[in-house]
Amino acid sequence: MEVKIGVQHSPREIVLESEQSAEEVESAVSQALAGKSQLLSLSDEKGRKILVPADRIAYVEIGESSSRRVGFGAL
User: Fold this and answer.
1) Which helix (H) or strand (E) element contains residue 43?
2) Residue 75 within a domain
């Protein structure tokens, strides 16, 4: 699952590949934005934790991970 997080006052977005389901990510984002937690906490495929202050979240984009194509071939 690919997750993109836009952070206020930052020109770059945070992009991570997570093994969490879309429902789990959406639940964590909803809890952070509702004020139930101060931080949005997600983990990536390598086991690293990403913490974003809830009051700095500009947007969150949740999408399916896409396989990367390598080489030449017919489309």
Assistant:
1) strand 39-43
2) no
